[in-house]
Design the sequence.
């Protein structure tokens, strides 16, 4: 079991540039989550998918953020255009459906926008 | 709606001492409760979970937690701290909504273990 795989691990970009974060969930998991972690706000749920369908995107901060899950093994989180306040660690997590199913997290992407 | 409160953003213990990290939850339905640990530059790892049944649950690395419905608590304990336990710990409560499960996390407790 390779776990949840995120890429890149680190991303440094300039304000205004487009940023794409990638996630491969654990095979067989049908729920996928994107979280953002900052010192100020802690862990925030941005969006989650169930069976590739977005269920709740109420945590997406602005229209600059978008997420897709074209198939069961891949998801992207895009920020366009990026701003310095988007600097954070972005985590992807996956799980089986069911309230008692734990989330399995990737190692995150540390995004720095200058 | 679910919510979690972790009392104490920083806890410091001596090596060999008892570890107690506090978590209180609010839930309109019977909760599923989780503790996660995060080491520097890593994602969160599951320590233990409570779903139904026995209220004392054991997890990895010698940690355990007890679900107390009357106190709406799910405190995490370990009898003897080890240096390797230094990390950030998150309590979380689950809500099953709209075909998916959604975890709400507390703000985390940073555990420091001193010699």
Sequence:
């Amino acid at each position: 079991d390779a776990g949840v795989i995120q890429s890149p691990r680190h991303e440094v970009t300039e304000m205004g540039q487009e940023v794409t974060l990638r996630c491969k969930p654990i095979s067989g998991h049908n729920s996928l989550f994107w979280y953002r972690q900052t010192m100020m706000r802690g862990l925030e749920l941005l969006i989650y998918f169930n069976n590739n369908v977005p269920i709740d995107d109420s945590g997406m901060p602005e229209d600059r953020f978008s997420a897709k899950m074209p198939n069961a093994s891949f998801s992207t989180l895009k920020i366009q255009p990026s701003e310095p306040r988007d600097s954070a660690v972005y985590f992807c997590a996956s799980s089986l459906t069911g309230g008692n199913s734990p989330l399995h997290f990737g190692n995150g992407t540390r995004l720095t926008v200058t | 709606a679910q919510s979690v409160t972790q009392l104490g953003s920083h806890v410091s213990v001596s090596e060999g001492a008892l570890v107690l990290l506090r978590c209180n939850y609010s839930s309109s339905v019977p909760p599923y409760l989780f503790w996660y640990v995060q080491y520097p530059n890593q994602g969160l790892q599951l320590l233990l979970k409570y779903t139904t049944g026995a209220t004392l649950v054991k997890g990895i690395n010698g940690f355990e937690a007890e679900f107390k419905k009357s106190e709406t608590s799910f405190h995490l304990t370990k009898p003897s701290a080890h240096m390797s336990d230094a990390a950030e710990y998150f309590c979380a409560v689950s809500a099953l909504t709209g075909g998916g499960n959604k975890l709400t996390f507390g703000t985390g407790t940073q555990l420091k273990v001193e010699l």
